[in-house]
Write a structure and sequence with these properties.
Length: 186
């Protein structure tokens, strides 16, 4: 019996590892590139969600970037046939981060930089598996745009959203945080 268990354990290790790579985005225009992807899973089932920054290029300098969403319902083996637009950047919508809560809501935070370098951080929510998204809610409380960096999001078991981001204060980048107790709605 011990020999059979050892053989089964060795066989399971031999087949463990990453599966073959699968392309997630479906951006096929020659003047676009995808960057800054973030991934999360649904709390139940086999759904996998990816947030993507899609940049439009003219030469080397980006003209605009947008936030797109992709979904797999079979544990990452296949993906939607088209990327779903979440936010069209006024100039730059960038650096997405994505998470889910235990009720299956999807939360996506991103940086919006209308001036190219200064902006704010926003959160959107989907209650239908990423088919539609709420209006953006501003996370930071800066009156004017700042040289915005990356925002990250997490959710606890009570449904509170926690966000953290970096922004300049004086000559240094500092980390700021905010909490939403209403699921990112206000």
């Amino acid at each position: 019996m011990k020999t059979i268990m050892t053989c089964l354990f060795a066989a399971s290790i031999a087949v463990a590892g990453f599966m073959p790579s699968v392309r997630v985005d479906h951006e096929n225009r020659s003047s676009h590139g995808c960057y800054h992807a973030d991934i999360t899973t649904a709390p139940t089932g086999t759904a996998v969600y990816v947030a993507i920054e899609n940049d439009s290029f003219a030469g080397i300098v980006a003209v605009r970037s947008d936030i797109y969403f992709q979904k797999s319902t079979d544990a990452g083996r296949t993906w939607l046939s088209e990327d779903l637009l979440v936010k069209r950047g006024a100039l730059f919508a960038c650096y997405p981060d994505i998470t889910t809560d235990r009720d299956g809501n999807i939360y996506l935070v991103y940086t919006e930089r209308p001036s190219g370098s200064e902006g704010h951080f926003y959160c959107v929510r989907s209650t239908d598996g990423g088919s539609t998204w709420s209006a953006p809610v501003k996370i930071d409380d800066n009156a004017a745009g700042v040289k915005a960096g990356w925002a990250r999001v997490a959710v606890d078991t009570a449904g509170h959203l926690f966000t953290a981001w970096n922004q300049p204060e004086g000559s240094y980048l500092r980390i700021f945080s905010s909490v939403s107790t209403d699921g990112g709605m206000n």
